[in-house]
Amino acid sequence: MFQRRKAGVALEADGTFSNDYAPEINSTIINSFATAGLRIGHTLIRENFTVSSGVDLIDQLSQSPVDFFNPGPLNDPNLGVNPYTGLYLGLAGIRAGEFDRNIADAVRERLIIPGPNGGFFGDLAAINMQRGRDHGLPGYIQFSTLCGGPVARGRNFNQLTNIPSSQRRRLDRAYRTVEDIDLFAGLLSEGNLRGSELGLTTTCLMLAQFSRTRRGDRFWYERNDTLTGFTIEQLTEIRKASLARVICDNSDDVTTIQPEVFKRSIIRSPNDDVPCRHLPFVNLNVFKESAKYSGAPKFSRSGGFGGNVAA
Questions:
Q1: Model-level pTM?
Q2: Could you say which of 51, 53, 162, 274 would form a disulfide bridge with 278 (CB–CB 3.0 to 4.6 Å)?
Q3: Cα dist. 86→53, 71, 265 in Å?
Q4: Looking at residues 171-176, what average pLDDT do you find?
Q5: 176-205, pLDDT tens digit by residue?
Q6: 242: three-class secondary structure by DSSP
């Protein structure tokens, strides 16, 4: 939390606004973040997705990643559950993969790229690295050094002390020099920071991007802007919102769920399933327009604006 707070990306506490808007900051997406940094999420891709009944995981369906754009298997009448509800409950019920250097075989050399005659097979990791080269990204070592990582040059792969030794040997076999390491490959190779899922350079890129995205956005929702922003009362309600509440309110036969949907513990924890009725509700009454807008022109069905809606 301290690192996120220091970088200016942690959300504000209840009852407070943010006051860190900086109009001189460019909030657009950094090339290295879009082309390599955020793509480390590809290491989280599963070999298959299990559908859940909401109580028990069932084995009738394992949805392969190669079927990302084919919802057909979800419509199997033998499932016995709402397939789409079952899919995200299955995701909520199984621990996620880790950010690491392992990429599922289903998207490594067997990823189906849509195209004529049924498309062709591709390798997602190779595509990511080629994309970085097409975008003219500097090598990994330049970003790592900029972010405070160890300095290494030429064939001195052992100087990359933020990368495990076994992975340094693999990089040594794949690249002629340290400077040749692709950014995507280097990010996946790093060891995790203490208490984090991410390595040094990945953390650096993430914090730099999200800080820009927040501080450079005039319409950031936590800003104290009486013209375009929310009131404290409205922010209080927004902060009650959760994916768990959304799932409960929009799903068939879901009565319990863990409050923090993205976390799943294999041992008893404060995030164990609770009844949906125990999750906070968002009070939408605080978002009603004030009386000062009641005289605003109304859109007419007949076209244009007018005081009355055409019948």
A1: 0.81
A2: 274
A3: 6, 13, 19
A4: 97
A5: 999 999 999 999 999 999 888 899 999 999
A6: coil
In a domain, 257, yes or no: no
Nearest-10 Cα torsion for 187, 149, 138, 38: 30
* Coil, strand or helix at 148: coil
Q: 59 is in which domain, residue-wise?
A: 41-199
What residues have CB less than 8 Å from 239, skipping those under 6 apart? 11, 14
Would you say residue 213 lies in a domain? no
Q: Residue 310 in contact with residue 302, Cβ under 8 Å?
A: yes
Is residue 223 classed as helix, strand or coil in its secondary structure?
A: strand
Count structural domains, the chain: 1
Q: Are 240 and 279 in contact (CB under 8 A)?
A: no
The set of residues, in sequence order, having a beta carbon less than 8 Å from that of 243 and lying 6+ positions away, is 261, 262
Question: What pLDDT score was predicted for residue 122?
Answer: 84
* Rounded average pLDDT over 13-23: 93
Q: What is the rounded CA–CA span in Å between residue 186 and residue 144?
A: 9
- Write out the two tokens for 221: 């929702």
Query: How many other CB atoms are there within 10 angstroms of residue 218's CB atom?
Result: 11
Domain annotation covers residue 145: yes
Q: Is 29 within a domain?
A: no
Cα 95 to Cα 50: distance, rounded to the nearest angstrom = 12
Query: pLDDT per residue over 227-255, tens digit each?
Result: 889 999 999 999 999 999 999 998 877 88
